[in-house]
Structures are given as structure tokens and as C-alpha cells.
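Homework help board

Subject: predicted structure for assignment chain

Our instructor gave us this sequence and asked us to write out the predicted structure in C-alpha cell form, then describe one feature. I got the C-alpha cells but I'm not sure how to describe them. Can anyone check?
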Amino acid sequence: MPTPYKHNNTSVSLLRYHFVWCPKRRRKVLVGALGERLKELLREKATELGWEIIALEIMPDHVHLFISVDPDMAPSQVMHRLKGYTSRVLRKEYPHLIRLPALWTRSFLVSTAGMSSSKTVEQYIAAQKTRD
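My C-alpha cell output:
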């Protein structure tokens, strides 16, 4: 089993963040093909940046993302990159989103998780689809 730790010239790290963010005005627009496309875009951008998505769940009015990133990337930078990229692409591909003043709110929740709580966070995110 590969180690979850990231190594570079001067450090070894294990940074895992649980993010939650919403569309502007908590609109329930993340459904159907748009929700699936959002998943694809998030995975595409994470791969491009060398990040690992551990768990991802798209709800109609919010997103749960559990991701492992490099130590030189602040949580606000992670959100800036993911929200900016997905908003640009989705608003181009789904013209009805242009009516919203912005796709995403400026706010987000972030919490950290190490090895001991990682399974708990993964189970929590996986259980989101079963909630009412």
C-alpha cells in the first residue's frame, strides 16, 4: 500500500482538508449532468495540480471535498483554484448559470484531518447521499 505522505526536497507532509462550499444563494443547481460534469472538472484540476481527491460528493446545493494537497498550498488557494476553474468552465458549458451573479459564494468551510480521522471524514462524505 503506498504511503499517503508527500515528499519533496525539504519536507514530508500529510495535509488533508475537508472542504464544503455552495453555489451562490444556495441554489440547487448541482444536479444531473451538471453535477457529474463538476465531479469530472474537480478531478481533472486536482490531477493537473498533483493533488489527490480522497472523497467527493456533489449535493444539489453544496459540495463536499476531502483532498490531499502539497504543504505550499494554503486552503484559500485550493478553493480559489478549484472554484475559479469550475465556474469558468461550467458557466461556458451551461448557459443558464450565467443568470447567477456568480456560480459560487465567496465563503467555504475547511477543516483539517490527519490519519486518525480520515476514515471518519470519508464515511461522513459517503453518507451524504443517503441523507434526506
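Reply (TA_rk): Your C-alpha cells look well-formed. For the description, you could write something like this. The mean pLDDT is 90. That's the kind of observation they're looking for.
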